[in-house]
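Figure 2 data, in text form.
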Amino acid sequence: MVLLRQTCGREEASELLRQIKEGCDPGRIRHARSASISEYVEAFELSLRAKECSDGPIDSLVARLNKVFSGCSVNTLAEVNASGIEQWLARQQVERALAAQTRKHYVVHLRQFGTFLVRQELVPKNPFFRSDRH
């Protein structure tokens, strides 16, 4: 704990300690936050293809993820903002006549991607899940 306090603030030290207690590697998470998000989308795509999922749904999922991240100017995991993404989706629904069901598909795809990130120990929790939504 002394080492953590020397290298970062109290809140960051608490977060690092929580990650360690949960079995996460804080160094890996720190690196993941600064790496290109497209790298992780590609890894997610490869993992889906390795499971022998059909090409069409995978292509659609990857295209939607890329469209959201491009539209929200998200280049790294550190830039992910669930509220910002929800606002972008709402604008798409109004401005581009995005169907409600299609919007739900976007949300499902984002949450699937977030679950992949958690399972790969790249983030401590799904960044696309908000506790006030079901």
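Caption note: The two ends are 36 Å apart (CA to CA).
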